[in-house]
Specification:
It is a single chain. The protein is built from eight helices and six strands, in the order E-H-H-E-H-E-H-H-H-E-H-E-E-H. With 224 residues, it is an alpha/beta fold. It has one domain: 3-Layer(aba) Sandwich (Rossmann fold). It has a six-stranded mixed sheet, sandwiched between helices. Helix 2 packs parallel to helix 3 and helix 6 packs across helix 7.
């Protein structure tokens, strides 16, 4: 089975450097352009099913894929970005002004960190991995290619969960409308599957240069 993680196109909140979790910021004009290019690229990559976060920026991006390929999006609430509560709509300097040191704690990946009015990292990781396993349970063990349109933190969390079982939503930045590609083989299930990461954050379909990870990083996976 092949799995493609796609981040949504640039949103209006991205454009103004605002943090967004469950906020429903739409795509910016640039994000719409990126999504259209992504859709054209996906016409060259046949796939069976398209899953998406129900947040507007992800659904608009999935919609561009649907417009190009005819494959309808299947929204899954569990694929939403982390709920960031009171941080919603703020810039990083504004968060630091209100809660000194909070950004550092959040980005440390400590599962016990809980954002004011939002989710803890532990709750976010549990939700996102449940949603991912529900998708995989429908397709794993086949030769199908599956696409999941989601968010930067969600994709990093799912990627690290599959790669080595150590969930972390802050691996590194992942660009808008980028594609991350994994191949799952072996027996289905968290303890027996084998995972090979082929690409992380590839944006060549947007006319941007792709710099692949070192081979040791890209090929790392769980032993079956």
């Amino acid at each position: 089975m092949e799995l493609l993680f796609v981040r949504h196109g640039q949103s209006m909140a991205n454009l103004s450097d605002q943090l967004q979790g469950w906020g429903d910021s739409p795509l910016s004009p640039e994000g719409e352009r990126e999504a259209a290019l992504l859709g054209q690229y996906m016409k060259t990559v046949p796939f069976l099913a398209l899953y998406a976060s129900p947040l507007r920026r992800a659904m608009q991006t999935a919609g561009a894929i649907t417009a190009a390929t005819g494959v309808p999006p299947l929204p899954r609430p569990g694929l939403k970005e982390m709920h960031i509560g009171s941080l919603e709509g703020l810039t990083i300097p504004e968060v630091e002004a209100h809660w000194p040191g909070l950004m550092g704690q959040w980005m440390s990946g400590n599962p016990s960190v809980r954002l004011p009015g939002g989710e803890s990292l532990a709750a976010f990781y549990a939700r996102i991995t449940r949603a991912l396993e529900a998708v995989l349970s429908r397709h794993e063990g086949s030769d199908n290619r599956i696409v999941i349109v989601a968010h930067g933190g969600a994709i990093n969390a799912m990627f690290t969960y599959l790669r080595d079982g150590k969930v972390n939503s802050w691996v590194q930045g992942i660009g808008n409308c980028s594609v991350t590609q994994l191949v799952l083989t072996g027996h289905p299930g968290p303890s027996t599957r084998r995972v090979e990461a082929l690409r992380f954050g590839d944006m060549t379909h947007l006319g941007k240069t792709y710099e692949p990870w070192a081979a040791a990083e890209a090929v790392a996976g769980k032993a079956g």
